[in-house]
Amino acid sequence: MEELKLWNKIPGETFRMKNIIYFLLLFSFAAINLYPQQSNKKTLTLNEIVSLTVKNYPLIKQAEQNVEVANAKIKVQESFDYPVVSGAASYTRIGPIPAIGFPGAGSFELAPANNYDAHLNAFYNVYDFGKKEAQLDFVKSYKKSAVDNIELVKSNLAFAAAKTYYSILFIRQGISITDTDVATLDEHINITNKKIESGTATDYDLLSTKVRLTDYKDSKLKLQNQLSNQKIILRHLTGLLKKDEINTSGNLKLLTETVNIDSLIAVAFKQRPEIKLAIDRENTAKLKTNIVKHGDSPDLNINLRYGLKNGFEPNLDAIRGNWAANVEVSVPIFNGFRTKNLEEESKASINVTKTNTLNIKQEIAAEVEKAAENIQSNLEQIKTAQLKIDLAEQALKRARAQYASGVGTNLDLLDAETRLADAKFLYLRTTYENIMHTYELKKAVGDIIW
Q: Does 347 lie in the same domain as 261?
């Protein structure tokens, strides 16, 4: 208290202190505005979601690593164009020492007891009549398949990301419709309570309204659960962290596609990565047959050897340089009909791959036709859904007028509101299906969306 009295006796100091406090408060508010708190909330567009998926999903990296494996195999095969050089060193102790004796002259040793040998060997395949080239082409075909497989993986992931994105938009707009219905029913409950107080409505009217309100709230909970699940899937696809709150920008809008089944199937046969992979398998099978055909081809090889060793006359213990050169032609004569049997196996494999390509083409054609048919059917469903909304709005307008005049009942009004809510949700669902069918057609045709 004494300090307080002393402080009050110094008005100039008090004024300056208050100014300092005000300045500090003002600076704090400015700092908050200038440096807002970091937020982990992310609002993503469709293109951003697809790009993140194609960039971060592990299957993409795995497919790219398979290309690196194929590159390594190609380098291994190319290494056969170079000579093979090896070195060896040995020590051998022998006994008894081979010797030859002459009467009156003693004996002469033919080899030293301690034998040393160190040498380099060089082997080079001069010509193999196309076997190495055929093997290299065969290995390169695996790289072609690995590269085309990246496109297939990206396509599947991109369309999965798009499907998840539009599912989130659909559920989000469904929740918005449900919120509107809940707000309408809450207002309806307030009006009914007032009518009960005035004696123009019964408890049954209130109970019926609350039952419907509970149904809508239960539907909202289910939609929120579905939304959470879709966001988990989206986070998994894009590689975002668990702490990141994901929001998607955009709304569901009808998509229109010009559908010409014959031309779309022709485009699909050119664009679908599955077709490219099937053709790759055909080429690989043909290249394997080419390798088999060279199975009976001869080889022309050169062997060179240079080293240091002892055991040469006249001084068996002296280490001397020595060399050897050899030219060898190897010609297969008979291998138990193995080459012929391998050729038959390769031809059968080619037929299998051709049949597989034909089967894939038929499946793709069916996918295009199915997606096109779904789009056409969906457009008719959209017209019906729009008509239901128009009729439900007219019916609700009449029901409200009758309820306000006392002619209509509470149940009549609730039924009219429910039919309009169902019609709006039906239109939203058919719009969502329109987008899904459109993207199914894009995927069936092989369009690139990343």
A: yes
Determine how many CB atoms are found less than 10 A away from the CB of residue 8.
9
Structural domain containing residue 407: 44-82+128-297+337-445
Q: What per-residue confidence (pLDDT) applies to 4? A: 37
Same domain, 199 and 244: yes
Q: Reply yes or no on whether the pLDDT at 2 is more than 50.
A: no
* Domain membership flag for residue 305: yes
pLDDT in tens, 330-365: 999 988 888 889 999 999 999 999 999 999 999 999
Q: What is the CA radius of gyration of the chain?
A: 42
Number of domains in the chain: 2
Residue 302 lies in a domain: yes
Q: Could you tell me the two tokens for 55?
A: 């960039």
* Residue 76's CATH number: 1.20.1600.10
DSSP-derived 3-state class of residue 127: strand
- Where residue 446 falls (left for φ over 0; alpha for ψ -120 to 50; beta otherwise) is left
Give the DSSP H or E segment for 184. Answer: helix 131-198
404 contacts 431 by C-beta, under 8 angstroms: no
Coil, helix or strand at residue 252: coil
pLDDT in tens, 393-436: 999 999 989 988 878 888 888 889 889 999 999 999 999 999 99
Judgement on whether residues 54 and 160 belong to the same structural domain of the protein: yes
- Mean pLDDT over the full length of the chain: 87
Whole-model pTM: value is: 0.78
First to last CA, the chain: 74
Q: Where are the alpha helices (DSSP H) in 294-409?
A: 338-405
Structure token pair of residue 220 = 């909202």
Last residue of a domain, one of 308, 331, 354: 331
pLDDT bin (cut points 50, 70, 90) of residue 99 is confident
CB 308 within 8 A of CB 322: yes
pLDDT 10s digits, 318-331: 999 999 999 999 99
Distances (CA, A) of 311 to 67, 135, 409: 54, 44, 123
d(CA 43, CA 41): 7
Q: How far is Cα 300 from Cα 350, in angstroms, rounded to an integer?
A: 31
| Distance set, CA 239 to CA 178, 204, 217, 233 (Å) | 31, 52, 33, 10
